[in-house]
Design a protein that fits this description.
about 190 residues; about 10% strand; 3 strands; single chain; 3 domains; Membrane-bound Lytic Murein Transglycosylase D, Chain A; 4 helices
């Protein structure tokens, strides 16, 4: 009986640590299972984000491949552009003709004219309703050319019998900067009363 009780005693003491080890192992297994579930959930979230990004990239590619209506020119835009190019080409040709004439004069021993400003004829008289608070004012439209100054423009008009001063031109064109005349801009030349 002694042997049996000894075996029982040994068995009890060996089973208790084994049971404790089984409990610790089970806790570790449960902890690992929880971590695996967390990792799987995080992987699902990442997969969803990647799918959303892939869809967004696909949409952006589709937008890039489609022509944008706001950046394409209409037929009217092209016609206006063609008219502007023709006008510029006409001005370029006129300037070229003027240069050739001046070179011919120079070649013949003549001098180059200092002013090429010719005011429009009386038939080109226009009305500027904003020029005066007392009512519409009669005068002429003039397109600024390269090298123009207000005094040169006024002098050219005076040579044609239209007595106008630089101050009158400035008064008829509010916002005009006499030190920075923009080539191609139209200004109003008032006809003296």
């Amino acid at each position: 009986m002694r042997k049996i009780s000894l075996w029982l005693f040994i068995l009890v003491f060996t089973v208790a640590p084994a049971r404790a080890q089984d409990d610790a192992t089970q806790q570790q297994i449960d902890k690992l299972c929880g971590q695996i579930q967390d990792l799987l959930a995080a992987q699902d979230v990442q997969n969803k984000r990647m799918d959303a990004l892939e869809k967004e990239i696909g949409d952006l590619r589709d937008k890039l491949n489609q022509p944008d209506a706001s950046t394409s020119a209409s037929a009217d835009d092209l016609k206006k552009l063609a008219a502007q190019v023709q006008e510029i080409d006409k001005k370029r040709q006129d300037d070229n003709d003027l240069i050739l004439k001046e070179l011919e004069k120079l070649g013949k021993g003549g001098s180059i004219s200092t002013t090429s400003h010719k005011p429009p004829s009386i038939a080109d008289t226009t009305t500027n309703s904003t020029a005066s608070a007392t009512g519409p004012q009669k005068g002429y439209d003039y397109t600024i050319q390269s090298g123009d100054t207000l005094s040169a423009i006024a002098k050219a008009y005076r040579a044609q019998g239209i007595k106008v001063t630089s101050d009158q031109i400035l008064a008829a064109n509010p916002g005009l900067n006499p030190k920075n005349l923009i080539v191609g801009k139209k200004i109003f030349i008032p006809q003296p009363q």
